[in-house]
Amino acid sequence: MSVIELTVNDLPVRGEIEPRVHLGDFLRDEQHLTGTHLGCEHGVCGACTVLVDDQPVRSCITFAVACNRQQVRTIEGFGDDELMARLRRSFSQHHALQCGYCTPGMLITARDIVQRFPDADEARIRLELSGNLCRCTGYMGIVAAIKAVLADLKVHPLAEALEEAANRVARVAPALPQSHTFETFTAAPAVPAAPSIPAPANTGSSDQASAQRKGWTAIDDSFVVPFPLEKVWAFMGDLPSVTACLPGAELTEHDDEAVKGKIAIKFGPMSANFAGAARLERNDAAHRAVMRGAGQDNISRSRANGDVTYALSPEAGGTSTRVAVTLEYMLQGPLAQFSRSGLVKDFVRRMIADFGSRITAQLGGSDAPQASPASQKFNMGSLIWSVVWGRIARLFGKQA
Ligand code: FES
Ligand code: FES
Predict the structure, then answer these.
(1) Which ligand 2 atom is at minimum distance from the Cα of 99?
(2) Where does the signal sequence lie (predicted)?
(3) Cβ(58) to ligand 1 under 6 A?
């Protein structure tokens, strides 16, 4: 059991919970907030969307423990929200719901769209809605309802309400110390410190500190390349060659230490094209390097920060090299809802393994990484299928 404390619809709650419980189950079963609907429970349909620290998040793929000390808002928590009131009215007027199953998630996403894209046209609305599925309406009424609210806001602005929404996190934060226990939970005496995340070999204290940064996700993995350490180390310093081993990545500028570039990713119905810059810090004596980068996807306006640390060590009497990789990242914006799921972590591990085989191919003189990686999107959809199959195979004791 883990102890967590958070606010749900401005009410502080505190107690113990199994780490495997996702936020959707926690809200429905422990908080009795059944307005949050669960459809696919795979992060696809959007029915379970809630706000965590004012960002839309899929509660079915977010562990409740990951929301420790955060502010969660469900559809029940918008009673005094003028913007949500306008959306609700507009949904009714434009027949934007039938069975209503998708409606809580749809309204929360609609509110986010209205806040982020005050000048959105129909194409933009449809694009932003693509992560919320409705089996009844055909979307016409939903799109019309959002368009009507956007038009109305031009005539009757909502500056105060929007400002209030933006300030909500800061306003409720001081309430945390007066927490109360979950109805069915046993209160524990104190909230334990966040667990430290294991760092790869040779990782220094500054990286251990960074691994504990709030909101960051860290993933450790390693792969073995059948070449001597010095050869692999020299290769890893050649940024264009390393970039060629990442599908969908493209360098636009680089020198020995800094790069600018972009990477295209497709995740089910969502596409992202992150453009940004990164800096490489290498320690030749320790054969260890850190690439620190940041970028933005201009379609979804999601932002990403990430550090990739890799440390090389000899294996098999020096004929092979183990590359220990730690990826730490934080996503902000609409894509943040995908950052914490186990599926995505498995996907990233598969990506790291794929990266290792591409490096092996390049070092061996093979054409495997293919010339124009920028031309192919990094298709999480197809890779995710292999990850899902791997999970199923493990479940039944088969080899993935
Ligand atoms: Fe479908 Fe969460 S239940 S995305
Ligand atoms: Fe039925 Fe959308 S109104 S699923």
Answers:
(1) 1
(2) none
(3) yes
- Tokens for 84, please give them: 């949500």
Closest C-alpha to 47, from 104, 111, 114, 113: 104
User: Is-contact 307 328, C-beta < 8 A?
Assistant: yes
* Cβ count within 10 A of residue 268: 15
Could you identify the atom of ligand 2 that is nearest to the CA of residue 97? Answer: 3
Q: Does ligand 1 come within 6 angstroms of the Cβ of 41?
A: yes
In short, whether 343's Cβ falls inside 6 Å of ligand 1 is no
CATH 3.30.230.10 is held by the domain 2-76? no
Residue 167 has pLDDT above 60, yes or no: no
What percent of the chain lies above the pLDDT cut of 90?
40
Name the CATH superfamily for 79-170: [2Fe-2S]-binding domain (1.10.150.120)
**Superfamily classification of domain 213-399:** START domain (3.30.530.20)
DSSP code for 299: T
For 23, the token pair is 């936020």
Single-letter code of the amino acid located at 112:
D
Closest atom of ligand 1 relative to the 60 alpha carbon = 2
Tell me the domain boundaries of the chain: 2-76, 79-170, 213-399
Residue 145: both structure tokens together: 């309802």
Ligand nearest to the Cα of 39, by number: 1
Q: Which ligand is nearest to the CA of 58?
A: 1
Identify the band that residue 347 occupies on the pLDDT scale cut at 50, 70 and 90: low
Alpha helices in the chain (DSSP H): 23-25, 82-93, 103-116, 122-128, 140-155, 159-172, 205-211, 229-236, 239-244, 342-363, 380-395
Give distance in angstroms: CA of 397 to centre of ligand 1.
Answer: 27
The reported pLDDT for the residue numbered 197 is: 31
Q: How many Å separate Cα 164 from the centre of its chain?
A: 26
